[in-house]
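Database export, one record per block. Field names are fixed; values are copied verbatim from the stored entry.
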Amino acid sequence: MPEITIRQKTERERAQYAWEIISRVKHEQYKEKYLSYVKSASSLILTNGLLQTLAFWKAKSNGESNSAFAYSCLLRDINNMVLGESGDFFQLCKDTADLDQYREYTRLSLASLTWLKRFAEAELK
């Protein structure tokens, strides 16, 4: 049996975590909004930049609507997928990330969003 590489293991862990997130979201009222936001998230990051996208989501997450809750959950989910459950991804990018770290956080965010988008498109329609 071939040995699993570190990259394969990392991708498998990312996929598993994304599946857990989408499995939770598919029973929520905001699932359509979440699907829409996940589908556009990568292009927002590539067009506007990671920090600007995180700031946009953070601004939109205020309130009680399904839309605000979906933004809040997406922000939390990306935070947890990139940093684990410790730390504030927005603050880290804003305050302490140098250019190389910022690029790495962008890469990790896009990789995480790839899995979230795949599972969301399959399960949240």
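Remark 1: DSSP finds six helices and no strands in the chain.
Remark 2: Residues 29-123 form a domain with the Peroxidase; domain 1 fold (CATH 1.10.520.30).
End of record.
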